């Protein structure tokens, strides 16, 4: 288990807006699904591009930034270089995300402004994390993963800004080449590697697992990094073989990472399947199914397989991994701030008492059913499945917002 200390944790009021705003964007993304036509789904559709940025920037990146604001100094055991900078990051990311979504949907002229605003927020984040990491004399594997992921994020947002400028007509570039580099640098280089690094801290901490080898994590990080570099190089120099090598490396990297999570989970002393455990189960199953489906895409070149694979990666793997951890992170932070000073003086709640049981179970069921139905809708091009799945996700994400507010405002 990775050693952690709460001595360097920032105040919860710094972290809370990231989780609150992220949960709202998760809900808005579910509402957005009602506007799609299952028979006409495509990656090049502006509606799909706007939806992807709404979900990834507004929900995934917002929550990851908040989690890293808390976990980076705790894991590194040093204070943030400039913790006050996080008060500027979420308003900039929020504003930039909204401008980019509006730009893709209605006003392309807004894209450069949205892109620059997102760029500024992420550069502040990357710069602050780098300067915090540089305060540490010796890097561990987890710290190295954060350094690698934030390096990829830096290049990913540069590629994204160039794409936004080209899409708006400000400059003329090959968007197709930039798109592949942007997607892999952000999804594989930043989000996947960050998840690998942070989950190796969080999963053992919340399941009480220990005495496992980090060698699979090292292998997975190396393979994913090589995959991203291969795809980025192939996108600029039109070397197709490098792209396929990158795809294969990324898939194997995720399987190796899954194997490590399986080892941690199977050796855990805490065996109960709470909302955290079942969310992670669904998340990792979604990841494996996503990998299987993408193999069918390479065999058939049918876009619906790639769409279904990405859908499961986003709303199955990313979303359930994030929501599952939020059910652990928020109660822990709220308990530490509100109730830890009262230990020994009066009765204090357990962490499990701070999670609304029925509502969290309902959120899981509705969101899981919604993800499955929309996967079927994408593969069969069935509008009935799409709207049914969107309805389930709408209810599930609404319950999730309620749960986040409940946990943040919990009173004994």
UniProtKB/TrEMBL annotation:
Keyword Ribosomal protein belongs to the record: no
This protein's record includes keyword Transmembrane helix: yes
Keywords for this protein: Membrane, Transmembrane, Transmembrane helix
Domain of life: Bacteria
Transmembrane intervals: 12-34, 54-76, 85-107, 113-134, 146-169, 181-207, 219-237, 243-265, 277-299, 311-336, 357-379, 385-405
Protein name in the entry: NnrS family protein
């Amino acid at each position: 288990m990775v050693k952690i200390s709460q001595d360097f944790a920032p105040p919860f009021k710094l972290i809370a807006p990231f989780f609150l705003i992220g949960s709202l964007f998760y809900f808005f993304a579910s509402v957005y699904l009602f506007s799609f036509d299952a028979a006409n789904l495509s990656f090049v559709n502006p509606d799909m591009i706007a939806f992807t940025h709404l979900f990834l920037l507004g929900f995934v990146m917002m929550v990851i930034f908040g989690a890293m604001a808390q976990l980076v100094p705790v894991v590194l055991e040093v204070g943030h270089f400039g913790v006050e900078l996080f008060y500027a990051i979420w308003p900039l990311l929020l504003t930039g995300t909204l401008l980019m979504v509006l730009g893709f949907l209605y006003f392309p002229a807004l894209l450069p402004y949205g892109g620059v605003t997102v760029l500024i927020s992420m550069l502040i984040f990357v710069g602050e994390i780098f300067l915090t990491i540089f305060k540490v004399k010796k890097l561990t594997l987890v710290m190295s993963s954060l350094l690698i992921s934030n390096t990829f994020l830096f290049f990913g947002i540069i590629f994204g800004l160039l794409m936004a400028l080209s899409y708006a007509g400000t400059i003329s570039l090959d968007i197709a080449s930039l798109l592949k580099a942007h997607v892999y640098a952000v999804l594989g280089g930043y989000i996947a590697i960050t998840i690998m690094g942070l989950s190796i801290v969080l999963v053992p901490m919340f399941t009480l697992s220990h005495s496992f080898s980090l060698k699979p994590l090292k292998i997975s990080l190396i393979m994913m990094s090589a995959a991203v570099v291969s795809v980025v190089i192939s996108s600029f120099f039109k070397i197709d073989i490098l792209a396929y090598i990158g795809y294969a490396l990324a898939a194997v990297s995720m399987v190796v990472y899954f194997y490590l999570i399986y080892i941690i989970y199977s050796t855990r002393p805490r065996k109960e399947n709470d909302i955290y455990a079942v969310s992670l189960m669904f998340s990792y199953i979604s990841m494996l199914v996503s990998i299987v489906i993408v193999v069918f895409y390479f065999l058939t070149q049918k876009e619906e397989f790639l769409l279904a694979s990405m859908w499961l990666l986003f709303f199955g793997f990313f979303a359930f991994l994030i929501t599952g951890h939020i059910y652990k992170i928020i109660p822990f932070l709220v308990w530490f701030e509100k109730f830890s000073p009262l230990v020994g003086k009066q009765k204090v709640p357990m962490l499990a008492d701070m999670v609304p049981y029925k509502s969290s179970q309902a959120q899981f069921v509705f969101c899981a059913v919604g993800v499955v139905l929309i996967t079927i809708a994408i593969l069969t091009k069935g509008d009935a499945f799409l709207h049914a799945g969107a309805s389930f996700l709408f209810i599930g994400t609404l319950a999730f917002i309620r749960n986040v507010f409940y946990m943040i405002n919990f009173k004994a």
